[in-house]
Amino acid sequence: MGKPLVVLDNVSYQYDSQEDFALKNVSMKVYEGEWLAIVGHNGSGKSTLAKLLNGLQFPTEGSISINGITLSEDTVWDVRRQVGMVFQNPDNQFVGTTVQDDVAFGLENNGVPAKVMGERVVDALSRVNMESFLDQEPHHLSGGQKQRVAIAGVLALRPSIIILDEATSMLDPRGREEVIETIMKLQQEESITVISITHDLEEAARANRILVLNKGEIYREGTPEEIFQMDEELVRLGLDIPFPVKMSKQLSEKGVVLSKYYLTEEELVAELWTSHSKM
Amino acid sequence: MDISLKNVEYRYQNNTPFERLAISDVSINIESGQYLAIIGHTGSGKSTVLQHLNALLKPTKGTVWIGNREIRAGRKEKNLKEVRQKVGIVFQFPEHQLFEETVEKDICFGPQNFGVSEEEAKRRAKEAIKQVGLHEEILSKSPFDLSGGQMRRVAIAGVLAMEPECIVLDEPTAGLDPRGRKEIMDLFYRLHRENHVATVLVTHSMEDAARYADEIVIMHKGRVQKKGTPYEIFSVPEDLLELGLDVPEVVRFQLKLEKAFNVKFGKICLTAEELTDAVADYLRGGTPK
After folding, report:
1. Widest Cα–Cα separation across chain B
2. Distance between alpha carbon A173 and the CA centroid of its chain, in Å?
């Protein structure tokens, strides 16, 4: 594991109008180069956490440091340069009239010289496989393509961390897959640190580590394998069990002997085949 | 109340240089008490079809029957209120349409607009809020102080309070957590079973289409590509995959197993339970059913 890039120390947050804390005593670390998925029911505090990481809100108690900088109103702009956010709705975050204008928007805001800007726009778009869409207008793009442009807009600013706040939840299955593939590629090939906040368990299953939030508190933390063994406990938390795990469990209950509950369909098929086909 | 589309065509911005054909030759029947799912890609024409079901759009060719009301291409239609009350549409992210000061006022807005008395509207609001699984005390709150999941339920309650004979759902669970998703889908299914409310579900979720619908329509490039029961539709997975659509995960898993073992289980299983039984039987040495 790399060095800790994000460190939360006993962070709590309370919205003005509410009695309960949206986040309570959250302490966690995100390591350089990892993909951390944060899952939890609606209202578990996931999105509040995302907003705190980007300085859109500040903790009521506790502290957050990002790449060694303690997040405060004075440092928020330095921190935002390191943390890129992609939000849920593809249409609400497309600001340019063309794909390349959209990606250039953030660079322009940061005063990047025009010469450098052109290169960085093309580079960022090619990393999400959208370089052939430079002059396309947003309404000609699918939801998945728009989200990939949003990711390029973030990449162009060369952040050390990308946060995806339910970035796939408004997409159709194909768009969702496009975005997840893009994130996997960035994380594995370019060692970008990814924090994805999601309900989609197939997405979470591909992360290195999963953090389960429940009612504003950290409930459990572990590898996808460890988390999905929680089984019915996940359902009680308002979440679900990935299909291969569900299938493994039901087969075991019907007397089909399996060495463990599998996270992917391929592994489960393989075990069924090797241990049972020659009966 | 039945709804039927007969050879419906719709062109956006008809007779302008921006004209675009969205759907053509679409014929669909929705009988009272039926649960129909419409599936297809983004851009396949699903949403355009949906907006014909309560005459938000009027066909540029063909006819739509909503109960005994005929909506025909090329004719001015007036007094569509009755139709709109009978067919309630829950749009995607319906919570974006909340606007009133209190939840109660928001839910009462629809029925009162259709001439229901204030007293009756309040009675319906009380009932609807319970149906969607929220407490009565939420009625006096501002809808904007609620969580996303609660706002979604309030918006749905607003449609239920109109007591429609047919409910049209456009991706009603997008963005909800798995429990919320199941609760909302089960709520609509219960209304469908107990009150015989005809239900049309537009969805990307093949699992929901397989679980709840008694008939599925596949839209492709603005046309009806195929119609059938979930068994009929998912028994020929090749057709769906060719259109770039998914099959339910249980069907996908069955196909992988059948390929690995080089067998056919004989029928397509639509639930994990069915498939578990089929696999266990097969491994026990029984012949596939």
Report:
1. 67
2. 17
Q: How far apart are the first and last CA of chain B?
A: 40
pLDDT in tens, chain A (279 residues): 689 999 999 999 998 877 889 999 999 999 999 999 999 988 899 889 999 998 999 999 999 999 999 999 999 999 998 999 998 888 887 888 899 999 999 898 888 898 899 999 999 999 998 999 999 988 888 888 899 999 999 999 989 999 999 888 888 888 888 899 999 998 998 889 999 999 888 889 999 999 999 999 999 999 999 999 888 899 999 998 889 999 999 999 988 888 888 888 999 999 988 877 654
**B43 to chain A: which residues are within 8 Å by CB?**
142
- The distance of A214 to chain B (nearest Cα, Å) reads 12
Q: Which residues of B touch A (CB under 8 A)?
A: 41-43, 145, 147-149, 174-180, 204, 244, 246, 249-250, 252-253, 256-257, 260-261, 272-273, 275-277, 279-280, 283, 285
Q: Are strands B198-202 and B166-170 parallel, antiparallel or unpaired?
A: parallel
Angstroms from B49 CA to nearest CA on chain A: 18
Report the candidate in A227, A246, A245, A247 with the shortest Cα–Cα distance to residue A237. Answer: A227
Q: Are strands B61-66 and B3-12 parallel, antiparallel or unpaired?
A: antiparallel
What proportion of chain B, given as a percentage, has pLDDT over 70? 99
The band of B287, judged by pLDDT with boundaries at 50, 70 and 90, is: low
Q: Which two tokens stand for residue B94?
A: 């319906």
Measured between CA atoms, the residue of chain A closest to residue B178 is A239
Residue B93 carries which DSSP code? S
- The edge-to-edge listing of strands for the beta sheet with B69-72 is B20-30, B3-12, B61-66, B69-72
Contact B283 A276 (CB under 8 A): yes
Alpha helices, H only, chain A? 46-53, 76-82, 99-109, 114-127, 143-155, 173-190, 201-204, 224-228, 232-236, 243-253, 265-276
List chain B domain ranges. 248-289
Contacts A247 to B, Cβ<8 Å: 250, 253, 272, 275-276
Ordered by where they begin, the domains of chain A are 32-59+68-231 (3.40.50.300), 242-279 (no CATH)
Looking at this predicted complex, what is its ipTM? 0.78
> What residues of chain A, 214 to 253, have a C-beta less than 8 Å from chain B?
235, 238-240, 243-244, 246-247, 250-251, 253
B207 is written with which tokens?
Answer: 């699992």
Residue B183, H or E segment: helix B178-195
The angle formed by the CA atoms of residues B215, A201 and A139, to the nearest 5 degrees, is 70
